[in-house]
Amino acid sequence: MSHSLLKKILLLIFLCLIPVFFSSPHIISKTAAMADSEFQPNIIVLNYHKIDNKNISLSVLPQDFDKQMAYLKNNDYHVITPDDLYENLEHNKELPANPVLITFDDGYKDNYVNAYPILKKYGFSATIFVITSFLDKYPNYLTWDQCKELKKHGFYIESHTVTHRSLTSLSNKQIESEIVNSKKALDERLQQDTHYFAYPTGTYNLYIAKMIKNAGYRAAFSIKYGNVTNDSNIFALERIPIFHTANTFKSFYRRLNYVPLFEKIGWMKN
Ligand SMILES: [Zn+2]
């Protein structure tokens, strides 16, 4: 967010709260806490699914996606990798200003056909969480060869389990198989150490998060709405879903710019 916009919003909120200040000392201390949290990293993790022309909420139109990427490019956002995010959260490694991580869930073929050329145009890369048993199997999902090519161009291909079943509905043995076998497939096929995981349908619990850690992952992404900060659980990281809506750019802009503020004053966490 630009400083002048942030100042305007803070001023507006301040003006709205003046009557409250005089009646409630509690609110004043909460405002002071807000100022402290300004110095925390505020990392935006965007979450997409499909980039195509279908008129469903999971599909962002290619021209809308292009407009959103242009906005990031022209407004001093810096696209980071999951390793950058991990190094910052675990080892305090510095991030560029306005860091954004772009993620896609499920591994649809349109990520390669439609999103990849647009991302390439802006010099961006992204992270795709794939369902490993779907690759080379269903025509509307990526192939392993496409994953290899994306990886060669700086994309991260990470785990979204083997079969995309909600983990909280499975037995421990099944959960283990989803977590371990998807990592194994990715490690072998892409010659990598797969470190990142996204929960299918966003469902998880502390026990599952522990299993993810034990399997050798460094971090896991949920669909909990919000920005990643120092307070985030590294095995349940927040994301901002971007959907196709009646005015996709307007809702993209709102989600990108207003979430941190809403979150700080406790309106939109979860
Ligand atoms: Zn999914």
From TrEMBL:
Gene Ontology terms: cellular component: extracellular region
- Keyword field contains Signal: yes
Q: What is its main location?
A: secreted
Report which superkingdom the organism of origin falls in: Bacteria
Alphabetized, the UniProt keywords read:
Signal
Question: What range does the record give for the signal peptide?
Answer: none
What InterPro entries would the database entry show? Glyco_hydro/deAcase_b/a-brl (IPR011330), NODB_dom (IPR002509), Polysacch_Deacetylase (IPR051398)
Question: What SUPFAM superfamilies does the database record attribute to this sequence?
Answer: Glycoside hydrolase/deacetylase (SSF88713)
Where the record annotates domain NodB homology, the positions are 98-270
Q: Can you say where in the cell this protein is located?
A: Secreted
Q: Which GO terms describe its molecular function?
A: hydrolase activity, acting on carbon-nitrogen (but not peptide) bonds
**Which Gene3D superfamilies does this UniProt record tie to the protein?**
Glycoside hydrolase/deacetylase (3.20.20.370)
GO-annotated biological processes = carbohydrate metabolic process
| CDD domains, sorted | CE4_NodB_like_5s_6s (cd10918)
* A Pfam family assignment: Polysacc_deac_1
Its protein name is Peptidoglycan/xylan/chitin deacetylase (PgdA/CDA1 family)
The protein's organism comes out as Pectinatus brassicae
